[in-house]
Design goal:
Length: 97
Amino acid sequence: MRKVLIILVSFLFLEACAETTALLGPALTVGSSGNVLQAGFSYGSNMAVKKVTGKTPGEHASSYIKEKKEEKKIREEMVSYLQSHIEIIRNKLASKN
């Protein structure tokens, strides 16, 4: 019981430690399933993503989602702008006829 309590308290102090977190997933996989190959693949893919993007997989996913939301917002603003100008041109053409 004492060891479990020490481990839980240490997680509180190490929660911002990226390298510890990167090793935690594969370690839990090996511990729960005993599948070393799956754990190795998980760790390897995490390190590959970090090497290519410079971000952890979680950071990369959140920045990708944020980027897509910004693109969607820009598209919506452009559509709104174009629709308002189309209405203005239609009104001008209707008033001429």
